[in-house]
Amino acid sequence: MEKENWINEILSSTDQIVKVLPSDGLYAKIQSQIQQQKTIETKWVWLAAASMLLLASLNIKMVSNELKSEKKNRENALVAFVTDSYNF
């Protein structure tokens, strides 16, 4: 019973809460501050995009070169193995 009273007391405490309304000019003030914020110039966006594209291209090129080098090393190892096998 005591637990139920405690729950009811907690729930009834929200009945005393009064809704607070913002001042009339608050929304307009927030909107004007948002509009005043500086935006990023288009040239900087394009520069960032070009930099990312260049970095991605360089990474792809490096991976491609590494794979070619690895393939070449395997071929050389195979040739060396075959050559050593026939040179008793």
UniProtKB/TrEMBL annotation:
Domain of life: Bacteria
Protein name: Uncharacterized protein
